[in-house]
## 1
Amino acid sequence: MVAEDPANTPELIRHPQFYFPDGSIILKSENIIYCVYASILKTRSEFFQTLLSKPPPVQTHNAEHGAEEVSMDAPEKLQDGKTDDTAIELAPIHSASEFDHVLSFLFESWEHDNRTLEALVAILKLSSFYLIDKGRAYSIRMLSTHPGLRPAHRLYLAQQYRVCDWIKPAWEMLFSLPLTLLTHEDVHFLGLDAMETLAVTKEKIITHRRRLALNAPKVQHSYFCRDNDACTRAWSHAWWGEYDRAGVARLLLQNRGLTREEIVTRLNQMNVAGMDNQCRRFTLDALERAPMVAKLELEECEKAQVIDAYEKALKDSL
Ligand SMILES: [Zn+2]
């Protein structure tokens, strides 16, 4: 074996936890060496099942161990996973600490629920790469309700690791949050296309809500209305608000995440003290039929179209 220049090679370190003395296969990530049970890796990972079932590389001196002679193009370095020096090198796209997390899933208690967000993301990432079905299912289940996973990160993970079920909740959260709350990291996860889609869709919604809020609907008086002026004043106060009470206009401008149904429900529940009951009913009915309110449905359509397009793109790529 060709000795490597020790000056250029970082010292190999046996992992304090995942170098089992009775392990059967030696793996390497960065300069960390792992000795784990091949049988467990093979059972739980389709990738390792294929990798470790392949005949070992060129065997010239080890014929006495009963290994069949296999002819392969001369490998640069024998990686049979039998010793630290011949450890099988893992994909360099993952870090040793990410590999630690997936090993902790495979070789420790499987389902302990106090893993960090970083650990769960690493398990999702590496389980997707190494085809560890249970690791993928576990991390998806845990991350689906994880409060620390920001919607932009969820959308990114959904696209990278093909979790179709996350597209809708991620977009719905993104639509309901003000753009000003996006962090630099969120923008990085979204990328240019999603960022543009988000900004344009939100701008359309904001413009529409602003128009809706700033055009107070006219009061529809009933035949029996006793005091049109008092009635109109009460409605106006309810719409624009008073010093101690937020009006409908503010509700529309501040809660851009509210759907059409939620807005209509809130309108029906609003307290219009001093307004004739029948006038209130007529006015709300007219408002519900008003084109501006009907347009709230178009907002939902806009959002649904974005979600559908992202879901379709992901499904088509599977
Ligand atoms: Zn009235």
## 2
Amino acid sequence: MKKIGPLMILEGPNKSKVPFSRSLYIDSSEKVLIDTGAEPTLLKTIQKEKGIHYVVNTHYHPDHTCHNYLFPQAEKWINPIEMETVSSIEKVAEQNGIYQEWGSVGVEKWVKTIPNEWIESLSIIDKSYEYEKTYCFDGVNVVFLHTPGHTKGFSCPYFPDLGVVYTGDYDMTTFGPWYNGTDGDIDEFISSGKRLLTIEADTYITGHQKGIYSNKEFKEAMTQFLSIIETRDEKIKQSIKNGLTFEELTKIGIFYPPRTLDNMLLYTWERCGIRKHLKRLGYTVQDNEIKSFVVN
Ligand SMILES: [Zn+2]
């Protein structure tokens, strides 16, 4: 297990790949677990041997909150914007584009597919933290930077004295930026990504797969990561030129491989993500036709 001063980096199964994530643990006299997507047996061992007083979630997505339910005794915090979201599973469905794409019938259908532990993990969150304020856990300072884009409330915990930031879903994966919920925003994603490059940090810890980057490596990786947004734009523009309808465009795999799109949630995010690109490129969807905003 990797350690940086009082911070322990806890891996999730399969290199912390979705539906799990990397967690951070502050090992001071106040024991803090940041996100709970790590290996559950590892989390339980830490709980038993050292204890967990606080669980702090960067955002509400299940790959970062799924094991909250293992710590009923800990006080659980989430960002102030998403305190509201976690109050009902219907609100979570709304933020994930399910209501937008399929209406209340779709929401009902989706709710039935969710594991009980996910719902429990969200329903037991106690309170919200403030953005941009310095919290001190027995001498370990942490600031929850508000970095919207991935979700509206998404935060990146930054440890100014250690020069460490947990970048969560700024994960630098080859999949590219994820802003596919109705609460995601492409422009905000880009601004927040750029903001992460301006803070004073030497160590960037991502939430999934690749892991730890130096400042220089993270800068290079961010350029590449954000450029995937333009690649998606280009692919969509080309498809419109080729005369594809909206429904056809949602089947070719702008985000997810086409073979995975029979999964309802992935297909919902595919549609939702494409709508964001269309809007950004100046298009609107009318009865399945893609039309330009620009009047000639
Ligand atoms: Zn997420």
